[in-house]
Design a protein that fits this description.
heterotrimer; A alpha/beta (296); B alpha/beta (448); C alpha+beta (98); A: 296 residues; alpha/beta; Rossmann fold; eight-stranded mixed sheet; 12 helices; globular; C: 98 residues; alpha+beta; Alpha-Beta Plaits; two-stranded antiparallel ribbon; 3 strands; 15% helix; 14% strand; binds thiamine diphosphate; binds iron/sulfur cluster; binds magnesium ion
């Protein structure tokens, strides 16, 4: 493994044992380095960052109200430009799925439409975890949360697609189960000028209902069943990332049941609902296939 | 303190001084008298304050401020970043982040825009970010109304901002320059809002003396911020989660929320002195003054009766007192300039030997009465000899505040005082219910 | 009480200082702790810089990338990810008393 040894997060944070987000953040900071200024909205990441006069990270962090991640990044970038420091410091916005797909979508849309030179990373634990596992626009179909006791009735938003509609130069998906893939993507994003967007699936033991030791294996299952697809879109060119490329062939994909059964949040799904999932995944991949064929 | 003010400074700045300056006009953009709107006066002040980051969103009647700033930037007259956001909430979020990164920043808005910013207002104050908002006042919907009243201005009185109200375009320009200097003072570090009546000032052309840039730079040096996130090696994180208590670790001690908010309140209270100091310094340098920087007084020296009002209402009262004085009344005006921090000591000192105060509010603290009125009553409560006070509501939603309304209000109040009637019940002047043919109040307000 | 140069004037924005163990000794969160069997661990056995899956996947960054890898048990939360991701099952989770 050739990830840098330098760490930017001190051990002993407030994140739960086995937190996927903590690992994503650790990898992202390794790729971006010390000259990074992070803006963080209300979320589990706020808590990870620490309390009052003390923090767990070595990079500089600005905490911003829940809906304002994108705008705060624009403000930081504008000020850095005002000082002529825009090429010295990488601005990273790191927000949860609620902060990204719901309350912060407007500010994010505005920030990328303006071409703000920053990296926006959404760690998607598929619910409002910090406030006690309520559903978000990114919660998948069938998931039980504290506000969807009967299971969510709609699918999750395809956020990268929404970002793609803004015509930004770089979009990538990721997951901590494939750390090198994630690391390389952040390194690449750092060199690109303009708005860069990451959507990273972030397994969450208490929110998803599994043993903390399985954070990596659950994430791998998400990829192997085809539920989570790793790709990049660079200047409009779509590219499946290595860990996902073999699953273009439906026969190579593991049955979605394996992924669903491993987590309590899917525990009450009916056979009918599982069928809905199969169609959902097939359709996602059909789209991708079409897209790749069109490009060639 | 008030005794120090010279006779000449009784009168709000502008008029006479301006006329004398018109004679030595120059063609240069600055150091010149320009006939401009209130909105443009604000924009020129931002330009000359050399703001580094501006972020704003259009709303009537404020929009020309940001249009003008965009023009300055496009023409190279202002070297600033203008972040053209998708909402006012984002505008102030941009301002907060940019200020925390160390820049001098400002924005402008009105009514609904200010309300959409609301979440960010205590954020800016809690972080002690010296951001300046220009507010072209406008009433709050529903129903929609683009015309002025002070409803938007008063809604933010409890979030920790310094709040100024202006009466003319020169005052807008001058107050902006002072506001930056005050806000960035190391004993203050507070965000501030400079308000002026929508349309009445925002869109009305008046002569404004724009000062020489070098002089402005001398008065307002570059910001020396207490937070500067661009300094990534030393500043690590700001505004984290706090607990109710102080945290002690071997690495150090951190104040709790309670201590932060105590410090905010203390700094607001203390800022009154600095506001006066900066106002005096401005007067010395540029020759214009606005009372004591806190409130302006008009013909109060021999007066036993005082009209107390803010902004456009106070301006209108200037006309009214001429007539009232002709009737033999000894009447003057106090025009409040500094709304927050509330200058209760100065007001108490001023009003301690006055007999009658008639307050005209272009706002309501809904469910109670006009805010100027009830706040003044509370502030004067501790006086041994309490003046008579009556409040009126005027001019909501841009309804004309006419001289005769003010005159009739003064008569009514003095009459009530004579009869010993004192009430908090609101009294609306200039209502025209009788012009509504099919309006029957009993249908709406059953008196049972 | 006006303008006394008291400490409150220094209480401006809430600024943070980076510290180890911001949440305290998070090792106490769990009684199970990873133990590396040095006879099985690839780098320990071979003396070569390889594998380090335990270092790579640890969300808490408490494993060192050294031969042999070492774990800061004071802050290790005992999640067991390192055990799961060790390709040769060199790690077992053992009960530790505090
Ligand atoms: C305006 C506003 N509304 C609600 C909240 C409460 N709140 C804080 S964090 C949060 C959920 C965050 O969810 P997400 O963005 O998915 O991050 P996660 O906690 O899952 O990491 C909510 C609802 C808030 N801080 N601000
Ligand atoms: S709730 Fe989930 S996302 Fe939040 S800290 Fe815990 S494991 Fe991480
Ligand atoms: S993962 Fe296992 S084999 Fe690899 S370094 Fe860690 S303990 Fe050794
Ligand atoms: S148990 Fe978890 S926290 Fe402890 S060393 Fe292993 S992976 Fe890291
Ligand atoms: Mg979430």
């Amino acid at each position: 493994m050739d990830l840098p040894e330098e760490e930017f997060i001190y051990p002993g944070t407030r994140a739960c044992a086995g937190c996927g987000m903590a690992l994503i953040y650790r990898i992202a900071l390794k790729a971006l380095g010390a000259k990074t200024l992070v803006t963080v909205p209300a979320s589990c990441l706020t808590v990870l960052h620490g309390m009052q006069g003390f923090c767990s990270t070595k990079v500089s962090v600005y905490h911003t109200p829940f809906a304002t991640t994108g705008a705060s990044a624009s403000g930081i970038v504008a000020s850095l430009e005002d000082k002529g420091l825009e090429n010295e410091i990488t601005v990273l916005a790191f927000a949860g799925d609620g902060g990204t797909t719901d309350i912060g979508i407007q500010a994010l849309s505005g920030a990328v439409e303006r071409g703000t030179n920053f990296i926006y990373a959404c760690y998607d634990n598929e619910a409002y975890m910090n406030t006690g596992v309520q559903r978000s626009g990114s919660t998948p179909y069938g998931v039980k949360t504290t506000t969807t006791p009967e299971g969510k009735l709609s699918h999750k938003k395809d956020m990268p697609k929404i970002l793609e509609a803004h015509g930004i130069p770089y979009i990538a998906t990721g997951i901590a189960s494939y750390p090198l893939d994630l690391f390389e993507k952040f390194k690449k994003a750092r060199t690109i000028h303009g708005s860069k967007y990451f959507h990273i699936l972030s397994p969450c033991p208490p929110g998803w209902g599994y043993d903390p030791k399985d954070t990596i294996s659950i994430g791998r299952l998400a990829v192997q069943t085809g539920f989570w697809i790793l790709y990049e879109i660079e200047n409009g060119i779509f590219k499946l990332s290595k860990p996902s490329s073999r699953y273009l062939d439906p026969l190579k994909r593991k049955p979605i049941e394996e992924y669903l059964k491993a987590q309590k949040r899917f525990s009450e799904m009916t056979q009918q609902q599982i069928k809905v999932y199969k169609v959902y995944i097939d359709n996602m991949w059909k789209d991708i296939k079409r897209r790749i064929e069109c490009q060639n | 303190m008030y005794g120090r003010m010279s006779r000449k400074r009784d009168y709000y700045g502008g008029g006479e001084i301006l006329m004398s300056l018109i004679e030595n006009q120059k063609t240069n953009i600055d150091n010149d008298i320009k006939i401009i709107t209130g909105n443009h006066a604000a924009a020129h002040a931002f330009r000359q304050a050399r703001v580094g980051v501006v972020s704003a969103y259009p709303i009537t009647p404020q929009s020309p401020v940001v249009e003008k700033i965009a023009e300055f930037i496009a023409n190279g007259k202002l070297n600033a970043r203008f972040v053209k956001v998708e909402s006012e909430h984002s505008a102030l979020a941009v301002c907060c982040a940019a200020s925390a990164t160390g820049s001098r920043v400002g924005t402008a808005t009105s009514a609904h825009g200010l309300e959409l910013m609301y979440e960010m207002l205590p954020w800016a104050a809690g972080n002690r970010l010296p951001i300046i908002i220009n507010l072209a006042t406008r009433s709050l919907g529903a129903p929609w109304s683009v015309w002025t009243d002070h409803s938007d201005f008063i809604t933010i009185r409890d979030v920790g901002w310094i709040q100024y109200m202006c009466e003319n375009n020169q005052e807008i320009y001058d107050t902006n320059l002072q506001a930056f200097k005050i806000a960035e003072n190391s004993r203050v570090f507070l965000p501030s809002i400079v308000a002026y009546d929508g349309y009445i000032l925002s869109h009305t052309m008046m002569p404004v003396k724009l000062e020489n840039q070098e002089e402005v730079d001398e008065f307002l040096p570059p910001i020396n911020h207490h937070i500067n996130l661009s300094n990534i090696s030393t500043i690590k994180g700001i505004d984290p989660v706090t607990t109710p208590n102080i945290i002690k670790r071997i690495e150090g001690t951190a104040p709790g929320y309670y201590e932060f908010r105590y410090a905010l309140q203390r700094s607001l209270e203390n800022s009154i002195d600095i506001i006066k100091e900066v106002h005096d310094e401005f007067t010395k340098k540029f020759g214009r003054s606005y009372g004591n920087g806190i409130y302006k007084i008009i013909q109060t020296e021999d007066a036993d009766t005082i009209i107390y009002a803010m902004g456009s209402v106070a301006s209108q009262a200037r006309v009214a007192i001429k007539k009232l004085r002709a009737e033999g009344l000894k009447i003057g005006i106090v025009s409040l300039k500094l709304f927050r921090p509330y200058p209760y000591e100065d007001l108490r000192d001023f009003f301690k030997d006055k007999e009658n105060i008639i307050v005209f509010d272009r706002d309501i603290g809904y469910g109670y009465e006009g805010v100027l009125s009830y706040e003044l009553k509370a502030a004067l409560y501790s006086l041994k000899k309490k003046p008579n006070i009556k409040g009126f509501i005027v001019g909501l939603g841009g309804r004309d505040v006419k001289t005769e309304h003010i005159i009739s209000g003064v008569h009514k109040a003095l009459n009530q005082f004579k009869q010993g009637i004192f009430t908090n019940k609101t009294d609306f002047l200039g209502l025209s219910l009788d012009e509504l043919n099919d309006y029957d109040e009993s249908n709406y307000f059953d008196s049972r | 009480m006006k303008n006394s140069k008291k400490d409150y004037q220094k209480i401006l924005g809430s600024v943070q200082k980076p510290v180890l163990g911001e949440a305290g000794k998070t090792g106490t969160w769990s009684s199970k702790k990873p133990h590396i069997d040095l006879n099985t661990c690839i780098p320990a056995k071979s003396g070569k810089s390889s594998c380090f899956n335990c270092w790579l996947y640890c969300p808490e960054a408490v494993v060192t990338r050294t031969i042999p890898p070492q774990i800061d048990l004071i802050h290790c939360k005992g999640c067991g990810i390192c055990m799961e991701e060790c390709p040769v099952n060199a790690i077992t989770m053992e009960e530790v008393k505090y």
